[in-house]
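Marked as duplicate of an earlier ticket. Keeping the data here for the record.
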Amino acid sequence: MTGPIRSSLHAHARFIRSIRSYFADHGYAEVDTPSLCPSLIPEPAIEVFRTEFLSSRGAASPLWLAPSPELWMKRLLARGSGSIFQISHSFRNGDLGGPVHNPEFRLLEWYTVRAGYLDSIGVAEDLFSRLLAENAPGRPRKQLAPPFLRMSMEEAFRSFAGIELAGCQDAEQMKEAGLRQGVAMSGDPTWEEAFHIVFLTLVEPRLPRSRPLVLTDYPALVPTTARRKSGTPWAERWELYIDGVEIANCYTEETDPQALKALIREESERKKGCRVPHRVDEGLADIFPPGFPSCSGTALGVDRLEMVFSGEVSLEGVILFPFSAIIEGQSNTR
């Protein structure tokens, strides 16, 4: 083994060890859930990988590779696991393009019981402090250091797009607001499509990069399993950006069965347009017992986080066998 690869492997191991030790020290139980799923949460923006189990009797049962461990981890929470975390390999089909995507990637997911989404910002800040102390000693990294900057989605749209988001609560209003700011929109976009076009065109490129930024209170019109912020058009959700790269996504988890059933129905209809259909886990809506305490869930891209901590500009600098190299190697052997 040559010197550079040995050093790289030890750096990988140290980074993962720091994450695990942080959560263990704070009372989280580490879990290990399956990658194979008989059904999934419907997420129209995500294409999945399909496979099948071949029984000894010759029957084939469809299965899908988990795009995240969320489905299994929520079942553990509902059974009384308490606060838990996991570093899993997750899979998203077609997710290859640019420096921050790979179809197979490492995902850190943690759930904190009796906590909301804002509490999880503090957890992320503490985690970053541990990672900086153990993986970047003597090297001040202002772009990585807590405390994080905080900005609501409403503030971001007002500051960087000149749009009052609260006043754009239907598709036509959102489209017209974007057009007034010079954003090109063709056809008849839905509210969510128009929102994302404006966000990706005007807002995301202008987000502050001096420190990690938490973008809070996403519109509830973007369907997720995040609980709605009472009396507002917002959801209890944040995303974390570092130097313009999205690193983490956090919700106060919705546990009301009626709200979850409505979401699953809506998203199942939208999922029909995906290239890889899958069976929907409709039973997820009923797993949480009455009176289940508030719970916050955070999903963080470990490869992306290691990339920014190590100063790399692409995931290929931290993934030992990036998918692009696998495909290139396969084509070269034909």
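See parent ticket for discussion. The longest strand covers residues 104-113.
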